[in-house]
Amino acid sequence: DYLYEETKIQTKVADLLFQSIGKTPKQEGWKILFKQQTKEEKEDVQTLPLVIIGEHAEVDVKSAEKETQPPKAFTEGTLLTAMKTANKTVDDEEAIKILQEVEGIGTEATRASIIEALKQKEYIQVIKNKL
């Protein structure tokens, strides 16, 4: 098992509450098999200083500018799958239940025609097999 110690520090600045979380590995466990870390994983790991509850401190604030990556574009195949498993992408409990009962958006027989209708009405377009 991979075991770690987690430290949480809550900092109040001008009536705003911020939380910092740091992890210190205690036992590598299964992670020993995956020693290579991506650049993002290395940046996300942070250790926190030893602090005492109620301690006042001065801080040096640094802002990091990062670019987000857009989600991968659908293909017709992945869109068909997403329509069938639409319940996995909603947060509303009632919507999840309904989508599970009806097995997604459309039926096995109508999903492809729904996509074709969306293409004909130019709601979606295909570029290099991506929608």
TrEMBL record:
SUPFAM superfamilies: Prokaryotic type I DNA topoisomerase. It is an enzyme of class 5 (isomerase). Keywords: DNA-binding, Isomerase, Topoisomerase. Pfam families: Topoisom_bac. Its EC number is 5.6.2.-. Residues 1-131 form the Topo IA-type catalytic domain. GO terms for biological process: DNA recombination; DNA repair; DNA topological change. It comes from the Bacteria. GO terms for molecular function: DNA binding; DNA topoisomerase type I (single strand cut, ATP-independent) activity. One of its GO terms (cellular component) is cytoplasmic replication fork. Signal peptide: none annotated. PANTHER family: DNA TOPOISOMERASE 3-ALPHA, PROKARYOTIC DNA TOPOISOMERASE. This is DNA topoisomerase. It comes from Enterococcus raffinosus.
